[in-house]
Amino acid sequence: MNTRAIAILGGTGPAGTGLALRWARAGETIIIGSRDAQRAQQAAEKIKQRAGNQSLVSGMENSAACAAADLLVLTVPFEGQATLLKQLKPAIRAGSVLIDATVPLAASVGGRASRTLGVWQGSAAQQAAELVPKGVNVAAAFHNLSAELLNGDDALDCDVIVCSDDSNAGELTRALAAKIPGVRAIDGGKLENARILEQITALLIGLNIRHKGHGGIRITGLPPQAYK
Fold first, then answer.
1. How far is residue 57's CA from residue 20's CA, in Å, rounded to a whole number?
2. pLDDT tens digit string along 11-34?
3. Strand runs (DSSP E) across the chain, as ranges?
4. pLDDT tens per residue across span 72-124
5. Cβ contact 224:199 at 8 Å
6. Tens digits of per-residue pLDDT, 143-196?
7. Which of the following CATH numbers is that of domain 6-227: 1.20.1560.10, 3.10.290.10, 3.40.50.720, 3.30.230.10?
């Protein structure tokens, strides 16, 4: 079991609650972060009811969550990513790892959800890396998991590709991904590859709308050690 608390920033949304539920069931210590501490606490209580009373789940305002943990997962819409990270910069602890799951969907500016926006830095994850304090390592992951399936009870049928410029952040993120039943974690290389993951998310949204499903991705043909 990971001994570090996991603070999920923007954790009251579907992706945040889904990841929190899966990790709480795996025995991880979870902090739900939100702009509203009361809303975070209410979300934490709902997750505890589903994960079991023995689960370690609490809720805090986002800044307090950052101060309480050095393993952060960002699950906010793209339009709120930069603003939130700028607000939280003083609270993010030195040496923290930030796992970014943000996707710059065109829907955030009134466009189609099946298209991505151009990001000057190259990807939302690279934008996050520019905004966090120096010494904070960023990994990109969890873009392509269905929030609806995460909030369910069944195992998922999906791979999680993890991109990071820091080997320790990448390894930690892959270990967390592997705690979700049915998920395999794969090293996707440098953080710059996150732009591809973000675009795949938009493609999956289009496919799921068209075919009325909750599709993910599987990478085939790699040696077994690639999934460790």
1. 8
2. 999 999 999 999 999 999 999 999
3. 6-9, 29-34, 56-61, 71-74, 97-100, 137-140, 158-164, 183-187
4. 999 998 888 999 999 999 999 999 999 999 988 766 545 455 566 666 787 99
5. no
6. 999 999 999 999 999 999 999 999 999 999 999 999 999 999 999 999 999 999
7. 3.40.50.720
DSSP three-state, residue 131 = helix
* Boundaries of every domain in the chain: 6-227
Amino acid identity for residue 63 in this structure? S
CA 136 to chain centre: 16
- Whole-angstrom distance, CA of residue 193 vs CA of residue 22: 26
Place of tokens 């953080």: 191
Residue type, 69: A
Cβ-contact 78, 102 below 8 angstroms: yes
Instruction: Please say whether the beta carbons of 29 and 73 come within 8 A.
Output: no
Contact call for residues 30 and 47 (beta carbons, < 8 A): yes
How many beta carbons lie within 10 A of that of residue 135, not counting itself? Answer: 10
Amino acid, res. 56: L
Classify residue 51 as exposed, middle or buried by CB count within 10 Å of its CB (0-12, 13-18, 19+). buried
Length of the chain: 228
Mention every residue, 6+ apart, whose C-beta is less than 8 A from residue 205.
Answer: 105, 113, 114
